[in-house]
Structures are given as structure tokens and as C-alpha cells.
Amino acid sequence: MLDERPSVLNLEELFRIAEWQHEIDWQPFREGIEIYRLYGDGMTGPTAALLRFAPGAQVALHEHTGFEHILVLDGFQVDENSRADAGTLIVNPPGSRHSVLSETGCIVLAIYEKPVVFVGEPVNPDDRPTSSCSSLLLAVNGTLMRGLELDGNLTSVGAAFVQDAATAPVYRLWSIGDRHPAMRRVLEGGVRVAVELWDVPTAGLASVLAREPAGLTIGKVILDDGREVLGVLGESWLCDGGQEITAFGGWRAYVASRRGPHAVGT
Question: Which end of the chain is more exposed for a tag (fewer CB within 10 A), N or C?
């Protein structure tokens, strides 16, 4: 029912969204949460989107830099302030902070003026080094990801995790000695590769790159929602000498496979 981005939303139909949610082209957003964007990219200005929470899904502590309106269409969610059932309209003003949990799953319509700033993972933006330079989005696909060996290279320059994402289906992935992956764009046979998007202060990008293993570099990466961001890529000579692990769809999945079927965490 939403094959084309509508300019008019029928509230009666929206409140019956559970009946036709399978017709929506949901895209990965955060762990346990899918998104369908009505307008905006969520990173640079006003945005409206439908969000579908799986049971138990949550959004970490974040701060609103502009007004946000949340209309709960199905199910319910809770935060530090209240429980919001279907039909509830929540208005979060600039400067407010909260985290969100949906124990049973829910679908909401979210409309917000400006991007939110995550302060619960892994660093508090208030603690970032002061800089007159802007920041940029960086897509990482290996040991820079949260909880892995080199995530400190990002947090030490004041970078903040933004969201889980995936590339467009034009990349392949290699393991370099099982120490780290290398991703390369290909003309055919590509897949979607799991990545994380980080907000990195421009002044710290050189430091991050300098500490990357030989053969890894910064280039343009196309995401599955059409956005183009900077990302970590592997040079041809590095990939050609590695073990291809494209079938796993990402470094975390590959590492988990090496730990066995009962592995917990990566």
C-alpha cells in the first residue's frame, strides 16, 4: 500500500497497519528495528518514517536536537517517562533524552526535525573533544565495529555509533588471515554486507586511518538505501591474498561461525 511515497497519509489505514505490514518494503535500521522512510535520510534534516520494532527491540539513550513526534500505530513502547499504547502521540522537545523499549513489538510513525544524537553507546557526545570541524558518517565492516578489537580507534577520537546498516548488493568480503576483513566493490556477484555507521569528527579521521592495517583505505560506500558515505575498503592486492567470506554477509557472522553453533557474542 506504500509502493510510492505518499503525500497524504490515511490515519484509518495506518492504524490497521498490522494487517498489511507485509506489503511494506522494510529496511534494516537498528538491531531488531526496521524502517520505511517517507522522506528524508534521518541524518541531515527533517525526516518521517515508519518504524517496526521486533519484540524486545530497544533504542539506546539519545538526545533530540529538534522536535520529534511519535505516533504509536500498533503495539506499545515504553521509555523513562511513560508507556505509549496504540493511538498515543508523543512529542519530544529539543534537548530531551530518553531510551525506548518495546517488549512485545510495535509499529510507529516517527516525524522529526533534526537527527538525534546517541549518548548511550559507546560514548557521550558531551565528552567529545572540542573541535570547530564538522563530522561525517563512516561505514565500518570489521574490527572497528562495536565490541571488537579496534573500536577504541573510533571512540578515542570522539566518534559515536549511529546505526547498523547494510551496503548495496555490490560488494564482496575477504578474511585477511582471520585478523580482519577487507571489503571490495565488484561489477557482478556482489551482496549486501553488514556495516555499522559511525559519526566521526573530521579532525579524527586521519588518526583512524593511520591505525588501520596495511591495505585498508577510505573510499565511497553505497548503502542499500541509496546513500553514499565514506567507508573502509580493501585494496585489490590485499583481497586477492585473502580467504573469501562473502557468503557470511559480514564479519560478525563469519567470526561467529568459527566459534561454533553455540557461540555467544562477537
Answer: N
In which domain, by residue range, is 154 found? 125-259
Does any domain span residue 1? no
CA pair distance 229, 251, nearest whole angstrom: 19
> E-strand spans in the chain?
27-30, 33-39, 47-53, 57-64, 68-78, 83-85, 89-92, 97-102, 106-112, 116-118, 135-140, 160-166, 171-176, 180-185, 194-201, 216-222, 228-234, 243-244
* pLDDT average, residue stretch 229-250: 93
Under 8 Å between Cβ of 232 and 182:
no
Please count the structural domains in the chain: 2
Following DSSP, what letter does each residue of 173-237 receive, concatenated? EEEETTTEEEEEE-SSS-B--EEEEEEEEHHHHHHHHHTSPTTEEEEEEEBTTS-EEEEEEE-HH
Contact of 100 with 58, CB cutoff 8 Å: yes
Query: Is the backbone of residue 72 left (phi > 0), alpha (psi -120 to 50) or beta?
Result: beta
One domain, residues 105 and 30? yes
Distance CA 119, CA 167 (A): 25
Instruction: Decide if pLDDT at 113 tops 80.
Output: yes
Nearest residue to 75 (alpha-carbon basis) of 149, 17, 134, 3: 17
Please write the tens of the pLDDT for every residue from 156-169: 888 889 899 999 99
